[in-house]
Amino acid sequence: MIQVDKLNVYYGALHALKNINLGFPEKSITALIGPSGCGKSTLLRTINRMNDQLQHMKVEGDIIISRVSIYGKEVRTEMLRKRVGMVFQLPNPFPSSIYDNIAYGPRLHGIKKKKELDGIVENSLRAAAVWDEVKDNLKQHALSLSGGQQQRLCIARALAVNPDILLMDESTAALDPLSTQKIEELVKELKKEYTIVMVTHNLAQAARVSDQTAFLLSGEVIEFARTVDLFSEPVDKRTENYIMGRFG
Ligand SMILES: Nc1ncnc2c1ncn2[C@@H]1O[C@H](COP(=O)(O)OP(=O)(O)OP(=O)(O)O)[C@@H](O)[C@H]1O
């Protein structure tokens, strides 16, 4: 589904990602792990060209999604981001109602009929496992929800434009253990429909949730393997040291 091919990223003189070659299978969860500053978020953000606006950033190599180069000249970033949704570390609902948060993307893409929008809002909130908690108060302000509910709302908002891929950048880092557990369960459920790439500092979470894991260090992929294998029998000593908590 996602093929990262000889990818190099520079921020000015800093070589942030070095010759990355990775393949993420469809309808699976890939975790990106590694110590702070190793390039996890940079890699995630190249998958929907989130850093395009940065003047000092340079991307070499390619990322291919469903056989199409996303850095090709003809690719429009709005269409790319419709296919590749993103959820951030801090829940960031718009300062509007629950309903309008979810309807925003579909409206932007031309859906106007109330009945159709109602259906999308319900289906997205259901898919993000937050429908039962909000269905009677869709006009309620999104910022009045708890942090965990806000984050599931943000996942619903990402799903509302019908993406294929969901990128999650430490999306449970600011949440309490119960909300974290709910999102982990949700992500495992979403894998049936979506290809998911998640950055996490939480190694136990990567082990619990993901199918494959990439361990990065100083901008390089040190090891990429099935999660069970990487955590039980890491091939590289540096991976072993990291997952054993000896650094990072
Ligand atoms: N916009 C930017 N401009 C300049 N340098 C940047 C920018 N974003 C990231 N970097 C640098 O690129 C390197 C990789 O950063 P990145 O945020 O991708 O790492 P990370 O592994 O996600 O870190 P963390 O776990 O702390 O979020 C770091 O040295 C960082 O300082």
Automatic annotation (TrEMBL):
SMART domains: AAA. InterPro entries: AAA+_ATPase (IPR003593), ABC_transporter-like_ATP-bd (IPR003439), ABC_transporter-like_CS (IPR017871), P-loop_NTPase (IPR027417), PstB-like (IPR005670). The keyword Aminoacyl-tRNA synthetase does not apply. This is Phosphate ABC transporter ATP-binding protein. Pfam families: ABC_tran. Residues 2-243 form the ABC transporter domain. Transmembrane segments: none annotated. It comes from Paenibacillus monticola. CDD domains: ABC_PstB_phosphate_transporter. The lineage of its organism: Bacteria, Bacillati, Bacillota, Bacilli, Bacillales. GO terms for biological process: phosphate ion transmembrane transport. GO terms for molecular function: ATP binding; ATP hydrolysis activity; phosphate transmembrane transporter activity. It comes from the Bacteria. Keywords: ATP-binding, Nucleotide-binding, Transport. One of its GO terms (cellular component) is membrane. PROSITE patterns: ABC_TRANSPORTER_1, ABC_TRANSPORTER_2.
